[in-house]
Structure formats: structure tokens, C-alpha cells
Amino acid sequence: MARALVIKATAGADGPERCNQAFTVAAAAVAAGLPVSLWLTGESAWFALPGRAAEFKLPHATPLEDLLATVLSGGRVTLCTQCAARREIGPDDVIPGVRIAGAPTFVEEITSEGVQALVY
């Protein structure tokens, strides 16, 4: 069985290369057939909202909206509960397929057997 990846994106427009790296690795892992869980925390929380990924631009990088669509098509995307609350984002605000969950769920995912966790 393939090793699962849990990827935590902590940067958004404030750290564009770090942000793009998290989404690129998540999308590449989905494309390779790996189980993937992408967590949006900190400033990356904004990308759980419709249209926000389309606004993100980074030269020589795959558009973030395409990377996010890939992850949503074959993996799981989770918005951090506290990060959502601090930005007044609720369950009805997010892109279909994005869930909101907190630290206990994150800990459960990263401590599962066969899981590799990455933080960007």
C-alpha cells in the first residue's frame, strides 16, 4: 500500500513560493495515486474560498486554482477550524469539497500508520 501524505500549507500570498510548493506537492502526489490530505492553515486559509486561488499568481508556477482542483478531485482538503474562525469563514463559504476541522483531526491523520506529514 502506498504511503499517505498529510500536507499542511501555512503560507498564502505572504509566502508565495512556500504556498505553491505545498499545493504542487499535494497535486503531484494525487496525480501519482497517493492518498493526500491538504490542510489550509494561516494565510492559506483564504484559498478555501471560491475564486481566491485564481487570484494567486507566481511566475513559472502552475496556477494555484489548477493545483487545488487536482487535490480536490482525488484527495481531501481541510480548512483549520481556528484559522477559519479568525477570518470569519464558515462552512457555507468554502468551495464544495473543502471541510473544516481542527487539531484533533489533524493529529489523528498524522499519527495514522503509513502517513508522512509535510509542513510548508
How would you characterize this protein structure?
The chain is an alpha/beta fold and 120 residues long. The protein has one domain: Hypothetical Protein Ychn, Chain: A (3-Layer(aba) Sandwich), CATH 3.40.1260. The protein has five helices and five strands, in the order βαβααβαβαβ. It has a five-stranded parallel β-sheet. Helix 4 (81-86) links the parallel strand 3 (76-80) and strand 4. Helix 1 (16-31) packs parallel to helix 3 (64-74). The longest helix is centred in the first third of the chain and has 16 residues, at 16-31. The chain is globular and about 35 Å long. The two termini are 25 Å apart. The model has no long low-confidence stretch (mean pLDDT 96).
What does this entry show, briefly?
With 120 residues, this protein is α/β, with parallel strands linked by helices. The chain has helices at residues 16-31, 52-55, 64-74, 81-86, 103-110, and strands spanning 4-9, 36-40, 76-80, 98-101, 115-119.
